[in-house]
Write a structure and sequence with these properties.
Layout: E1 2-8, H1 18-29, E2 38-39, E3 44-49, H2 52-63, E4 68-74, H3 91-103, E5 110-114, H4 131-146, H5 150-160, H6 165-172, H7 176-185, H8 188-213
Parallel strand pairs: 4-5
Antiparallel strand pairs: 1-3, 1-4, 2-3
InterPro entries: Sig_transdc_resp-reg_C-effctor
Organism: Agromyces salentinus
Protein name: DNA-binding protein
Length: about 220
């Protein structure tokens, strides 16, 4: 399972943005959350999901405005589940706590920690699902997104919603060539092409943590 913990950057000098982040993430990911999103200690936000695609999307959404240090923990969550995320426990929460602390010092303010390594299997190297390597790849996507301009985000968000480039051009009143140029500058295709592989790697980490959690 995946636990995402986000801690507001420089919270003593800015208003509490926790409720704003929770509202935005719940609006997009409500169906994928196993418990309601929660504000825990102070201005910290916590979400739990069983979905690798949702975990990755939540991380990318939470890191987008650079107001948050975001930690992704992969591990076991004790059942039966309580009625609130802040009451839940397990190795995924320990991993998420370590990750968010590491994120405060990391490029992109993102870090990942997994509760256990995946045992070696015939035909597969043990480091294929190494958490540090998955963390590095996700961080590259986060850093690509940090460099994206407002104009780049405008077209990238529409492309993410499934609109074709010609339709985006009509919606924005610009040429199809301009849309293509903005998407290229935003490195939209590089991001989109990387996400399926990252989802598979996260799912592999979760599978390993699940085996450890039941041993």
């Amino acid at each position: 399972m995946y636990v995402i913990t986000a801690d507001q950057v420089a919270s003593r000098h800015h208003p509490d943005r926790a409720s704003e982040l929770i509202d935005a993430l719940v609006a997009r990911h409500r169906s994928a959350l196993v418990l309601p999103a929660d504000q825990t200690a102070g201005d910290e936000v916590q979400l739990i999901t069983e979905s690798a695609p949702a975990a990755l999307e939540i991380v990318l959404d939470a890191t987008r405005d650079e107001h948050w240090s975001v930690g992704l923990g992969v591990g076991h969550v004790r059942t039966p589940l309580p009625d609130a995320a802040r009451k839940a426990s397990g190795t995924a929460f320990i991993a998420a706590r370590e990750a968010v602390q590491a994120a405060k010092r990391a490029d992109g303010r993102f870090a990942l920690r997994a509760a256990s390594a995946v045992p070696a299997e015939p035909g597969r190297r043990i480091d294929e699902l190494d958490a540090a390597q998955v963390e590095a790849l996700i961080r590259l996507v986060v850093l690509i997104r940090e460099r994206r301009s407002d104009l780049g985000w405008e077209v990238a968000d529409l492309a993410r919603a499934g609109h074709l480039q010609k339709d985006i051009a009509t919606m924005l009143g610009i040429s199809a060539a301009a849309v293509s140029a903005r998407l290229k500058a935003a490195m939209w295709r590089a991001e989109a092409d990387a996400l399926p592989a990252l989802v598979r790697l996260l799912a592999g980490l979760d599978a390993g943590a699940g085996r450890a959690g039941t041993s």
